[in-house]
Amino acid sequence: MTDLVKLAEIADTAALTAKAMPQFSDTQALSVAEGYAVQALSMQRRYARGDRRIGIKMGFTSRAKQLQMGLSDMIWGRLTESMREEEGGTIDFGRYVHPRVEPEIAYLIRDRLAGNVTPLEAMNAVAGVAPAMEIIDSRYDNFKFDLGDVVADNSSSSGFVIGDWFAPDTDVRNLGLVMSINGRAVAVGSTAAILGNPARALAAAARMAASAGEVLHPGDIVLAGGATAAAALAPGDHVETQFQTLGTVTFNVGG
Ligand code: OOG
Ligand code: MG
Question: Per the database record, which ranges form the Fumarylacetoacetase-like C-terminal domain (predicted)?
């Protein structure tokens, strides 16, 4: 029998020490359900050290992300306080294994959301929307994994940067965006790449989290998923994403 508690400890240690680990599926395949069980157990270890869950991130909500990673099922992970990086600030490269960045849309929850809701119902429970970037970091060697692996690794959740908050009725269905590193465009796309409308990812977050008995609480953040493929980060990088009508989100990578 697969020792899920042991795998959770391995995943937690890899994230805590920023050291890559072999894929779990190299030795024994994990089902997606087992992956979520490992994720929950490893996050319990993190919370026990004083970190706090502050939201949910969705993954593989765009074709660009699915194609880049070769996986096509939507996944979710837990965001914690310690993953929040300051907009315009400098991230510590040493906290990450092989980080990548991707443009996203963030939602701030105003009213409790649990279970099956429509995108419209989900939008009506929101206090604000913001342009954002997620800093993903697989803890697996070579950033390679199957579905069970990545879910067990908290869906590569590692860091995120959020720009200015806008009113909840701000139209973010189809906004052009350009992500640049050191002034060179590395990804160009639209928020429409996120399930045709990022509000669908918000509804999916409420639904998928509920399958683990979790609800979206007032004050929680939801990341809707990368709109484009992710780009690798290196020490010294300056990262900037311009979002049509929502302004710019930036951060630097420390050496
Ligand atoms: C998995 C996480 C996917 C997204 O926005 O699609 C994700 C990964 O690509 O490492 O965060
Ligand atoms: Mg993402």
Answer: 98-253
